[in-house]
Design a protein that fits this description.
The protein is an alpha/beta fold. The protein has a domain of 206 residues: 3-Layer(aba) Sandwich (Rossmann fold).
């Protein structure tokens, strides 16, 4: 397949590009002018709404991962950038694809379980309604921005990613030094559900979704067994053979990280991968402690 990939320099995108190339696919990258990599990819500028239709003709599939990281304190400027990087970029790409003479068969768009908001212990599937809050609103609009592609009969999949675990990047990489130093801690009361998935499973999911006609619409990319933050903290501590007796009070997290702490670190989303399981997809890792042991053997 000829596949166009945005966000190829990111935590997931860089690994996905390598995986797909090993599988024999021809990968072309969308690159921003500021990246310094224009010579090795197809230029686009979502901030200015610039993407030449001729440059993206003839691809079999498009995977869209670009978007600003949400894991920092949210100022007004950061929140604006979070929205624009997702909604503006998706709108530009979907609208351009919809006008092509030879549009791709599929557009796989990264999304997030932030769509569901803070839902306590409620079981959440792809059929669950949108939640409340800034992140839920962003994800809802992010997914709606791809409508022009769907209206042009392109199969659009919204891959609602949970917490992606890998020792080489993301949240787990930031937690490991603290836990290895015996400073691991629950967040708040630790009762909030964490819907997680390993990076190898994320790569498998994206590759599986390239199969023509496989799925369309929202797809929860989360392991079948979500855990609470308390359970995750205990499992990581046992895996590293370190104590983790501490708890970071919710009030302290909110003072330091503000709205981001409330909507991300302390919010509870028990999302389950109903759509994937219906297709017979088999997860490499479905139990958190076994997953952590597999990733951190010898650590």
């Amino acid at each position: 397949m000829r596949i166009l990939l945005s966000g190829a320099s990111g935590f997931i995108g860089s690994r996905l590009a390598e995986r797909l190339q090993r599988s024999g696919h021809d990968i072309q990258r969308l690159v921003r002018p500021a990246s310094g990599r224009a010579a090795s990819g197809i230029p686009w500028d979502p901030d200015r709404g610039l993407l030449e239709p001729e440059s993206i003709e003839g691809f079999d599939a498009v995977i869209h991962l670009a978007g600003r990281n949400v894991g920092t304190r949210w100022s007004r400027t950061v929140k604006r950038d979070i929205r624009q990087s997702r909604i503006g970029g998706t709108s530009l790409l979907a609208g351009t694809l919809a006008c092509l003479r030879r549009p791709p068969e599929a557009l796989l768009c990264a999304s997030a379980i932030g769509y569901y908001g803070d839902r306590g212990s409620e079981r959440l599937t792809e059929k669950s309604p949108v939640g409340e809050g800034f992140l839920a609103g962003v994800v809802k609009d992010w997914e709606e921005a791809a409508r022009p592609a769907a209206h042009a009969s392109i199969r659009v999949v919204h891959v609602r990613l949970g917490l992606v675990l890998d020792p080489g990047g993301g949240a787990l990489a930031r937690l490991l030094p603290l836990f290895r130093a015996g400073l691991g801690a629950r967040l708040g009361d630790g009762r909030q559900h964490m819907s997680w998935i390993t990076l190898p499973d994320v790569l498998d999911v994206f590759e599986a979704l390239l199969t023509p006609g496989r799925l369309s619409g929202p797809v929860n990319a989360t392991a079948p067994h979500p855990v609470t933050n308390r359970e995750f903290t205990a499992a990581l501590a046992r895996t590293l053979r370190r104590p983790a007796p501490w708890s970071l009070p919710a009030a302290l997290l909110e003072v330091v990280l503000g709205e981001m702490a409330r909507e991300s670190l302390l919010a509870s989303a028990r999302a389950e991968p109903e759509a994937l399981l219906r297709t017979g997809y088999h997860f490499r890792q479905s139990e958190i402690e076994l997953a952590l042991r597999s990733m951190l053997q010898g650590s």
